[in-house]
User: What shape does this take?
Amino acid sequence: MREEAPHILAVDDDARLRNLLRRFLMENGFRVSVAADAAAARAQLQSLVFDLIVLDVMMPGENGVDLTRALREESQVPILLLTAMGESSDRIAGLESGADDYLTKPFEPRELVLRIRTILRRVSRPALLPVPAEPVGEITFGEFRFDPVRNMLWRGEEPVRLTESEGALLAVFAAAPGTVFSREDLAEGEGEAPDGGGNVRTVDVQITRLRRKIEPDPKFPRFLQTVRGRGYVLRPDS
Assistant: This one.
């Protein structure tokens, strides 16, 4: 197997499924490591770098959603959650915790591979509107200032870490403050998602994550606002 093949960490307390995941993913060109629970996954993450984590939600001890939320405090490694729970509220909870996608058991193994490859393509390039060719200067809002050229955000003098996609998203808004962008506009350029409409939901997840970093109260956004029925708008300081 080529050394540059993406390295996947599969985390599931079911030994049978864990081994099936390893075998199937390796057959499809991935390097694969496995872990039986959150503690074992953390140990692996301390010594190895992974391109993506396939993570079971219902595990004894620390569950997959809690582990995802904790990992998002220190890492932006893509995470695909696996769960036997198919309710939309469960899916939303998983995405809000910071997961990139959510697949309900039982699933078709080929769909798992398709979703993994879709996520890896998405994180390898910002799937958002291109920033205009004309240079855009720094923009300020509240305690924050954002430099779209350097893709850097500061809160006062402290840098705030952004993922590539978060920086690209904020750069789109910074290029046209006060302009309402629809979810479809912001998702433009993404490949087709396996379940259809997934690109638009990805935008919603990215907006939620960005609000957690720039809003005093993300539930009542002051800067990155929702315009009902139209989309999102950045309203910086006057």
Summary: The chain has eight helices and eleven strands. Residues 125-133, 189-198 have pLDDT under 50 and may be disordered. The chain has two domains: 7-124, 139-234. The CA atoms of residues 57 and 64 lie 4 Å apart.
